Amino acid sequence: MDPIVAAASVIAAALAVGLASIGPGIGQGNAAGQAVEGIARQPEAEGKIRGTLLLSLAFMEALTIYGLVVSLVLLFANPFA
Amino acid sequence: MLMIHPLVLAKLEVGEHLYWQVGGLKLHGQVFLTSWLVIGALLLVSFLATRNIQRVPSGLQNFMEYALEFIRDIAKNQIGEKEYRPWVPFVGTLFLFIFVSNWSGALIPWKLIHLPSGELAAPTNDINTTVALALLTSLAYFYAGFSKRGLGYFAKYIEPTPILLPINILEDFTKPLSLSFRLFGNILADELVVAVLVLLVPLFVPLPVMVLGLFTSAIQALIFATLAAAYIGEAIEGHGGEEHG
Amino acid sequence: MTNFVWLLAVEAADAVEEGGGLFDFDATLPLMAVQFVLLAVALNALFYKPLGKVLDERDGYISSNRVDAAERLAKAEKIAKQYQQELAETRRQAQTVIAEAQEEAQKIAAQTVAAAQQEAQTQREQVQRELDEQKNQAMVTLEQQVDGLSQQILDKLLGALAV
């Protein structure tokens, strides 16, 4: 593997995961905060809120995972190697 | 291969496969081995649970009835009371297969078994499996739409306006793509994180991450089944369904 | 750590050499799909159908039992109500009977008392009459004796004077 391509791939992989985690991080924080607020207002709806929260958290998590997949491709299945 | 080392358990392998040649076809052997185990376990448990069916359930039958009610609830919530029954087997098998696969990858110490090449892991760890499941889901919702609404199914592509036609067509491609990559990425990431941690600190430290991995795996199975059911429900009902990335 | 990085590099290189990799699509995909469909069919026959049937049957059993129980409860309540009505009726009757009996008893007692009083009155009157009569008789005899005695006294006094 060309050393420049290798270095660029590693940096790109790190950036991919790092940047991909910013948005979902903010989104998950928002969602969790709103869920806590919802539970505080209506404690009897806790079960429903928790289920929905987990599901939506997983959807946001998936966005980071896309970035992770890209970085995994760069690391382990680099098309430019 | 080159790791003759005390930490054989911690070998990190990505993108290696145990190749089988069947006819002119190349297969990933490790995926089939583990998937057969998963399928065998599912069939065995269902057989044991339904062998002696009682009106008042106990033990395994009780547990499997709980699982069935859980699956029915998923299908009912997404597809609707009227139409969900024929889709219970599909959605349920998606859930069970993915769930048991994910957990088998996390709970069974596959790495103790050495293969000539590649390593045993959850079947959902392989992109072929997840893409297969996602494509089946696509086929399922196309079938659901056609069988329910005939050619009128295509009307949904120009709703609400014909301008959205490209986006609506694109959606049919992004749906399986996101489904398969979500599952594949989550499971692979989980196993990689555990593997990297085991590589650094072999004892105890990876345990919380493994527990988190179990949780994520279960949620991913639930999400895959829920989304598949939601797509099917959307195709049956027409527009107005929920949209998920 | 260096070992780790080196390892990653080696694995990746290996994967590329073998023509494998992370996104290695081959006949695994369709075979997995077929396998999955077969699993769905098998589980449908082995798991969803029998257990679903049991669940539905149990639901039917429970709801029919519930309807049955509700019917029986309604019937029991009706019977209880009827019994209560009858009980109240009987109680009322019993009360009237008691009241009648009390009234009658009072009447009889009053009659008896009146008769006894009357009898006592007549007896007393009779006794009084007898007493009066005896008193009269006694008075009569007493007067006769007084007359006799006064005659004797007079004779004696007159005789002594005469002598």
Which overall shape of chain C is indicated by the principal axes computed on the Cα atoms? rod-shaped
Largest sheet of chain A: none
Category by helix and strand content of chain C = mainly alpha
Helix content, binned percent of chain A: over 70%
Tell me the number of helical segments of chain C per DSSP (H or I, 4 or more residues long): 2
Explain what you see.
The complex is a heterotrimer of chains A (81), B (245) and C (163). With 81 residues, chain A is an all-alpha fold. Chain A contains two helices and no strands. Helices cover 86% and strands 0% of the residues of chain A. In chain A, helix 1 (3-41) runs antiparallel to helix 2. The N and C termini of chain A lie close together (5 Å). By secondary structure, chain B is mainly α. Chain B is built from six helices and two strands. Chain B starts with 18 loop residues before the first strand and ends in an 8-residue tail after the last helix. Chain C has helices at 2-18, 28-162. The chains are: A mainly alpha (81), B mainly alpha (245), C mainly alpha (163).
Write the layout of secondary structure elements.
The complex is a heterotrimer of chains A (about 80), B (about 240) and C (about 160).
Chain A: H1 3-41, H2 46-76
Helix pairs in contact in A: 1-2
Chain B: E1 19-22, E2 25-28, H1 29-50, H2 59-79, H3 88-107, H4 127-149, H5 165-200, H6 206-237
Antiparallel strand pairs in B: 1-2
Helix pairs in contact in B: 1-2, 1-3, 2-3, 2-6, 3-6, 4-5, 4-6, 5-6
Chain C: H1 2-18, H2 28-162
Question: Could you provide a short overview of the structure?
Answer:
The complex is a heterotrimer of chains A (81), B (245) and C (163). Chain A is mostly helical and 81 residues long.
Keywords:
heterotrimer; B: 245 residues; mainly alpha; two-stranded antiparallel sheet; C: 163 residues; rod-shaped; ATP synthase subunit c (chain A); transmembrane helix (chain A); proton-transporting ATP synthase activity, rotational mechanism (chain A); transmembrane (chain A)
